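Case study 2.
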Amino acid sequence: MAEPSFAPPDGPGLIDDRSDPDFPALYRRLTRRAERLDVAATRIRLSGLRLGTRELRGPEGIRVLLMELNAFQLRTELDVLSLNTEGAARLRGLRELLETGRLEVRALPLGGWAPDFSVFHGPRSAITALIGPHWMERPYPHRGPGWASLHRGEPARTAAARFEELWDEAHRVEGALRRIFRRRRGTGAGPDRG
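Prediction:
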């Protein structure tokens, strides 16, 4: 019997910068439909993160594993994003996820993986994995092509198992992130007092 899929049936197995849906659209669709989301990324640029409140409300829990977390760069991005309405709203949504515990973030600076990958956990234990550079900008920022692949079934379960191994080795950074968010303008709070 085939595994039930919560991924769009028209989703391509191989995605490039010309696919329809393209990577950002497919990622948003999968995020909205996921019950849980696990992301392993070398680094995250908040300015390139194009997930809105509609997508971030979907999963009950989001775990993000980073190889690189630069506090200075994060503070700079928070300042820049807080200057416009859309960016400030995105930051408030991320801060709310952190504060409620729905967003967990760990860092594994001495670990490694390539390329970036996300695992979307859906209803009835369905699992879908997106593997490849996690580019959310439009148009695609390079001359192309930009490749990623969509996996279900056993390959997706393998990606989920490898994520768990990496997650168990990583250390938590939510406390530091909360302090950084609280100290930035436009994220919904004043200076951190504790």
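The first strand starts at residue 14 and ends at 15.
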